UniProtKB/TrEMBL annotation:
Binding site for ATP: 10-15, 127, 137-138, 200
Role description: Catalyzes the reversible transfer of the terminal phosphate group between ATP and AMP. Plays an important role in cellular energy homeostasis and in adenine nucleotide metabolism.
Name of this chain's protein: Adenylate kinase
Subcellular location: Cytoplasm
Positions of AMP binding: 31, 36, 57-59, 85-88, 92, 161, 172
EC number: 2.7.4.3
GO molecular function: AMP kinase activity
Keyword Nucleotide-binding applies: yes
Catalytic activity: AMP + ATP = 2 ADP
Keyword Translocase applies: no
Pfam hit, one: ADK_lid
Gene: adk
Family as reported in the entry's similarity comment: Belongs to the adenylate kinase family.
Assembly behavior: Monomer.
Length: 220
């Protein structure tokens, strides 16, 4: 299957992408991973992307598209892939259509993870990170430490990152609504969108997604 995963920040796209890719035996292609891999390997695309990032500028669509194209042409993606973070806007979606058409391929589904805006803010703004080890993550509601403000694992101080503040989260949501959400209507016109609720336990959302994708396939 060839799937695009969309949803607002805080919807759990990365977590669901990993589970779904494993269940479907297809690679999870994340734009974040693509950028890191290309920059780490110092590919021409990686050097180009880094030059924009170091200057504090957005990486142009054509660079992101070229990275995605290169990854989708790898042998492990021959029978499908799950795209996470790409396309990020309608122009990228159009470019992806052209790329797939040139390879005589097409998308099977666009999985839209739906989460109410207030829940997104609650999920992200409630996160607390350990200063000693950023992999130790807690939450004021969903994963409270035994002692307020103290990491259960190492005793380090828990803090809220600047980009997890409510103000920043709402700004990120506005960017999502303006830039990325329009691709849902773009793909709806092609009959590809499958929308599910991303509320509840991780495994429940995965089950919901797998069932919705199967229904979508059966309905074609």
């Amino acid at each position: 299957m060839r799937i695009v995963l969309v949803g607002p920040p805080g919807a759990g796209k990365g977590t669901q992408a990993a589970f779904l890719a494993r269940n479907l035996s297809i690679p999870h292609i994340s734009t974040g991973d693509l950028f890191r891999a290309n920059i780490s390997r110092q590919t021409e695309l990686g050097k180009l992307a880094k030059s924009y990032m170091d200057a504090g500028n957005l990486v142009p669509d054509e660079v992101t598209i070229a990275m995605a194209k290169d990854r989708m042409e790898q042998p492990d993606a021959k029978n499908g892939f799950l795209l996470d973070g790409f396309p990020r806007n309608v122009s990228q979606a159009e470019a992806l259509d052209e790329l797939l058409e040139a390879e005589n391929m097409q998308l099977d589904a666009v999985l839209d993870l739906e989460v109410p805006e207030d829940e997104v803010v609650k999920r992200i703004a409630g996160r607390r990170i350990c200063r000693n080890d950023s992999s130790h993550v807690f939450h004021v509601t969903y994963k409270q430490p035994a002692k307020d403000g103290v990491c259960d694992v190492c005793g380090g101080e828990l803090y809220q990152r600047d980009d997890d503040s409510e103000e920043t989260v709402r700004t990120r949501l506005e960017v999502y609504h303006t830039q990325t959400e329009p691709i849902i209507d773009y793909y709806k016109a092609q009959g590809l969108v499958v929308t599910i609720s991303a509320l509840g336990k991780v495994e429940d959302v995965t089950t919901r997604a797998m069932e919705a994708l199967k229904r979508g396939e059966d309905g074609k």
